């Protein structure tokens, strides 16, 4: 087993690190307040609008509703609350979901993936950067509210770190410069970082495989390991081995298969619809 104890933060002043995991169907937020001389503690945001009565709600749905003028009307759990569907119909809202797949709508054949034809269209007049930026801005707002409400002297705490925030954004294995550049544009548009060299330096990227490795190291990892994450949107596979103390290297090319449980359901529905076509069972619930 390999475990790594966190060291005390040796920076000159307090700062905040925010990590946003924007997934195909669900998203999460983690954060760490770094105080000089204190061992860092990673925490998660577990309270979101429309989720107040759900204790420990660590994730929200990756959905945005826009009105006919392109203004954000509901995000995350707000987009799933009771009565929202009637409002969507009455006011003709447009839904954006699975939008991160528009960063790479055609998957590289060499990665063992197929072309995804079932990605919902983006709302009229919106690019993937626009939608991503709106969602990042929402996550940032949720984080600010959570820290202010749950920490002692939360407002003063937030004010002390607001100008000292570093961001970490996770993304699928095998996504590289093209996708990272689009995510960076979204972060700038969302107001997370400035569009300068200094601003860009405050944003870091981590693949799902690398994030899983860091988590595993903190919880006891064998000398070599294959990490497989089977989620609703994608299946991520990465393999690493330990070469030195606290040092790992990849022993295979990380893979990402957009065949998570959501797509399994879609393919199963398509299969059954074709198989039962013309029969009296086709329209059975």
Essential attributes:
285 residues, alpha+beta, Nucleotidyltransferase, domain 5, six-stranded mixed sheet, four-stranded antiparallel sheet, 7 helices, 29% helix, 25% strand, globular, ATPase_NBD
Overview of the molecule:
The protein has helices at residues 84-91, 128-150, 154-161, 177-189, 197-201, 208-218, 261-275, and strands at 15-22, 26-34, 42-44, 60-61, 63-66, 72-75, 94-97, 165-171, 203-207, 224-230, 235-244, 247-250, 255-257. It is an alpha+beta fold and 285 residues long. The chain has a single domain, classed as ATPase, nucleotide binding domain (Nucleotidyltransferase, domain 5), CATH 3.30.420. Strand 2 and strand 3 (42-44) form a beta hairpin.
CATH superfamily caption: ATPase, nucleotide binding domain
Could you give the distance between the termini?
A: 49 Å
CATH architecture tag: 2-Layer Sandwich
**Uncertain ranges:** 106-113
Q: Classify the fold: give the CATH topology.
A: Nucleotidyltransferase, domain 5
Number of helices: 7
Number of domains: 1
What proportion strand? 15-25%
Largest sheet: 6 strands, mixed
Can you give the helix content as a percent range?
25-40%
Rg estimate, integer Å: 21 Å
What does the oligomeric state look like here?
single chain
Question: For the record, what CATH class applies?
Answer: Alpha Beta
User: Helix and strand succession?
Assistant: EEEEEEHEHHEHHEHEEEEH
């Amino acid at each position: 087993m390999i475990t790594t104890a966190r060291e005390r933060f040796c920076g000159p002043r307090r700062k905040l690190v925010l990590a946003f995991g924007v997934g195909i169907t669900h998203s999460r937020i983690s954060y760490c307040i770094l105080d000089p001389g204190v061992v860092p503690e990673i925490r998660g945001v577990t309270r979101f609008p429309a989720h107040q009565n759900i204790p420990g709600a660590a994730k929200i749905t990756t959905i945005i509703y826009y009105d006919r003028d392109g203004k954000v009307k509901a995000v995350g759990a707000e987009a799933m609350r009771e009565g929202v569907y009637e409002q969507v119909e009455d006011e003709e809202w447009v839904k954006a979901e699975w939008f991160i797949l528009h960063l790479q709508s055609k998957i590289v054949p060499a990665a063992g993936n197929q072309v995804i034809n079932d990605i919902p269209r983006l709302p009229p007049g919106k690019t993937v950067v626009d939608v991503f930026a709106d969602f990042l801005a929402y996550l940032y707002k949720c984080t600010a509210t959570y820290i202010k409400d749950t920490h002692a002297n939360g407002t003063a705490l937030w004010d002390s770190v607001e100008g000292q925030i570093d961001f970490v954004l996770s993304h699928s294995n095998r996504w590289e410069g093209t996708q990272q550049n689009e995510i960076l544009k979204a972060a700038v548009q969302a107001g997370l970082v400035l569009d300068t060299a200094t601003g860009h330096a405050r944003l870091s990227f981590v693949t799902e495989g690398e994030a899983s490795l860091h988590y595993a190291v903190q919880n006891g990892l064998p000398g070599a390991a294959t990490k497989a994450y089977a989620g609703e949107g994608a299946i991520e596979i990465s393999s690493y081995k330990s070469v030195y103390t606290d040092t790992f290297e990849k022993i295979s090319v990380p893979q990402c298969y957009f065949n998570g449980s959501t797509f399994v359901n879609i393919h199963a529905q398509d299969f059954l619809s074709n198989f039962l076509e013309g029969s009296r069972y086709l329209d059975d619930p």
